[in-house]
Specification:
alpha/beta; about 15% strand; seven-stranded mixed beta sheet
């Protein structure tokens, strides 16, 4: 998520102009209020709960198959993803296959943008909601989201879910990542039409149909690894209002189920989220060294007089206050924030690893695919 857009829209200039109209249907054919689109690649572990939470949104006045539809896109899964999706088939639920992905230099898409674009072209909703398979939606959140977008005059509404973390390293590292995101992309600036800052969380992106197709949709950001941010930037640059907020009242998400998966996921994203990833790593490492080094310095140097020891401890208190005040903005549980200092070395390593993959090897791996970056 970069304010300037540098590094995020590197390939925009080579993309063809996309018509604002849907290829397969005129606007008058749209009768539904909402199309919910769930791209899924090898998501058997989480997809069932996600789909159940979505199907249960159907209620009188907002009935699935009448007011809204659910489109699940199987992105060449090799596990039980498709079978799980087909288990919830009913009126208003469709399961489709993503088009074959071209991963050569001529390809326009990543796996996710390919799946999202395929579903968007056959959607019938006046609004499109792109939501990930690892999300669980609270009762009524679809209707409330539509109301919120209209109330604020937003063409794009994105929620940052409550993040579910398990295991020591997820609990220690994830607050660090999200605290840096909160600092780099403050919602107040994202929501300000006069600010160039744009952001979105791909786990929940609700976008008005016409605004989406007017900027080319996922076709226009097809090669972007951070397609959510790139799409939000395009919507905002087209002089549409966007709204972004932390929304534990709407949904939760479990991004990663293991340490290797977390490392792979953040290696893919961190260098794009923070163009100054090396600087962020340096600042984090400095705080880590001060946190543990200052008390040792105050107690371990025999030549220090008492006031000097207290002075060093006061610096330590100020450093600790600043660190935890910053991490506290991540919205994670107090216990996770407390142990986050121990996650700093891993976070720094992931930042540097991500930078190397993007700047040196020019490729990242995700869900069994390798994507070239910087094209």
């Amino acid at each position: 998520m970069s304010d300037s857009g540098e590094g995020m829209d590197q390939c925009e200039g080579i993309l063809p102009i996309v018509s604002s109209a849907k290829p397969h249907a005129a606007a008058t054919e749209m009768q539904m209020r909402l199309s919910v689109i769930v791209p899924a690649r090898n998501e058997a572990a989480v997809l069932g709960e996600c789909l159940r939470s979505l199907v249960e949104q159907s209620e009188p006045g907002f009935e699935l198959g009448m007011e809204w539809e659910l489109i699940v896109v199987d992105d060449d899964s090799s596990d039980g993803t498709r079978a799980i999706a087909e288990a919830v088939l009913r009126e208003g639920v469709v399961v489709i296959d993503a088009p074959r992905l071209d991963q050569s230099d001529r390809g326009w898409f990543t796996g996710k943008t390919n799946a999202c674009w395929a579903a968007a072209q056959r959607a019938h909703g006046a609004w499109l909601l792109f939501t990930d398979a690892d999300t669980v939606h609270e009762s009524g959140d679809l209707g409330r989201a539509l109301h919120e977008a209209k109330k604020h005059g937003a063409a794009l509404l994105s929620y940052s879910p409550r993040q579910i973390v398990t295991g020591f390293w997820q609990r220690a590292v994830m607050p660090l990542v999200f605290s840096e995101l909160a600092s780099a992309y403050p919602p107040k600036k994202v929501n300000d039409p006069a600010s160039p800052v744009a952001a979105a969380n791909g786990q929940f992106v609700l976008v008005e149909h016409d605004a989406y197709f007017a900027v080319g949709g996922h076709r226009a950001v097809g090669q972007q690894i951070l397609e959510d941010v790139a799409l939000a930037r395009k919507i905002k640059r087209a002089r549409n209002k966007i709204r972004f907020r932390y929304a534990p009242d709407a949904l939760s998400a479990r991004m990663y189920r293991s340490l290797p998966e977390m490392v792979e996921g953040w290696t893919k994203n961190l260098a794009l989220l923070f163009p100054s990833a090396v600087l962020v790593a340096g600042m984090q490492l400095l705080q880590f060294l001060l946190f543990f080094g200052l008390p040792l310095l105050a107690m371990g140097l025999p030549l220090l007089v008492i006031w000097q020891r207290w002075a060093i401890l006061l610096v330590w208190l100020r450093t600790s206050w600043g660190f935890y005040g910053r991490v506290g903005r991540s919205k994670f549980a107090a216990g996770d924030v407390a142990i986050s200092i121990f996650g700093v070395p891993l976070f720094c390593w992931m930042l540097l690893r991500s930078q190397l993959h993007h700047q040196v090897s020019k490729s990242v791996d995700w869900k069994g695919r390798r994507y070239k970056v910087g094209r």
